[in-house]
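Why do we bother with a discrete structure alphabet at all? Because it lets us treat a fold like text: something you can write down, compare, and reason about line by line. To make this less abstract, here is a complete entry for VWFA domain-containing protein. Read it the way you would read a sentence in a foreign language you are learning: slowly, and without expecting to understand everything at once.
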Amino acid sequence: MTEFNFADSSTGRRLPIYLLLDTSSSMGGAPIQAVNQGVVLLYNELMNTPQAVETCWISVITFDSTAQQVVALTELTQFTPPPIQANGATSMGAALDLLGQSLDREVTGNTGERKGDYKPLIFLLTDGEPTDDWRSALSRLRSRTQKKPATIIALGCGVGANMSTLDQIADVRLRMVDATPDNIAAFFKWVSQSVKVASVSAAGGGGQMDMPAPPPQLTISI
């Protein structure tokens, strides 16, 4: 069972959640529609959880031929799920670089006067092979000395997802053999449940909590 540990994080007022979503052309059609619906599902589920409303901020980064932060880190009550379309290549390296820049710009660290944010939770969804230099980007992300991501969770969708790449990027890797709309919806449901548990832990002052087991459509490797 997956665990998130807040014990080494400072108590902060925000729990940043970053969604890194593959919007390459191979995600076109039903998969990208399911991703759009999944982000809406995540938002609705969190809005019905008082601790999440209190602590969660959300950002959405998409990557295809380029990477874009389509929603900057935004308070949950002000968040609007963005429309997402599929087109182009799979610039995962650009997404990792943009993630690092966003963390530097948006996440508040500790100072002598105040406690900063919790370490962010990163959820990465992809169905293919990166088409750019993701290794150098990953090295840059890991070389950051402050505001490091606490946990990167990656989902490889379908037979085209390169799990060996995700093994190097993520702390937790999930595999979805069939990237059907129902299975993608199950992933976002699991994300919402995981964030709920994390927000309860954050609101309660930290500590280690077990995360929900993934649905049967997903296999997990830690």
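What the structure line is telling us, in plain words: The two ends are 9 Å apart (CA to CA). The first helix runs from residue 30 to 47.
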